Amino acid sequence: MMLRAIVRLMSAVLMGCFALIGAASFWGSWQDGDAMTFVSIDEKDTILSLNDLRTGTQIRLSKGNTSTPQAAWSVDGRLAFTALAADDEWLFVWNDTRLTRIYQSDADVDELVWSADGRLAFTAVETFNRDVYVWDESGIHNISGLDADERQPVWSTDGRLAFTATHTGDFEIYVWDGARAHNISQSPGNDADPQWSADGRLAFTSARHGDLEVYIWDGLSLVNASQSAAADYSPDWSVDGRLAFTSNRDGNLEIYVWQGGALTNVSRLPNSQERQAVWSYDGRLAFTSEQDRDWEIYVADEASVTNISQSMGHDSMPVWNANGRLAFVSTREDNEDIYVWDGEHLSNISHSPGVHDRLPDWMPSTAH
Question: How far apart are CA 213 and CA 293, in angstroms?
Answer without folding.
Answer: 27
